[in-house]
Amino acid sequence: MDEYFVGHKKHKIDAKGRISIPANMRSGLGSEFIASRGFGKCLALYPMEEWNAFMQKIHDTVNQKDRKQLEFFFSANAEKVGLDGQGRLLLNEENKKWAKLDDAVEAEVFGNNKRIEIWNCELFSEQLNTIEYQAVEDILDEYGI
Q: CA–CA separation, 119 vs 46, rounded Å?
């Protein structure tokens, strides 16, 4: 994948549990992609190439005990999906509950580097507001960026 997903925007979740993915993010997902639990209490959408690379990295670098736990967490809650003709994703009921989206009428769609995340609006705002400017500056300095 040459492009990175960036930005965030609130989108409605309709009565059937579908959410629109922003037009500028759709092509990067491809026609089929993986929807799974993400880091934090969100859902993550991975283009197939990124999902495969992510799972391969877990397989190649994590010890067997931890690998089993990670693979179980991500793979057991993953499904291969696509968008409908209007660019909407049907959200999995179990993953909606886990991400606290089961009663939500809106969610934040967040372009996070090589994946798209779908967040409960309150949880997203809390996460975003915990980041301090000075901490970001210190991390960048530490890595020479």
A: 15
pLDDT tens digits, residue range 27-63? 899 999 999 999 889 999 999 999 999 999 999 999 9
Q: Give the sign of the dihedral formed by CA 81, CA 82, CA 83, CA 85.
A: negative
d(CA 45, CA 81): 9
Report how far residue 49's alpha carbon sits from residue 54's, in angstroms, rounded to the nearest whole number: 9
CA 20 remoteness from chain centre: 14
**For residues 34 and 79, is the Cβ–Cβ distance under 8 A?**
yes
Q: Give the pair of three-digit tokens for residue 34.
A: 């993986």
Indicate whether this model's pTM tops 0.70. Answer: yes
Q: 108-135 pLDDT, tens per residue?
A: 999 999 999 999 999 999 999 998 999 9
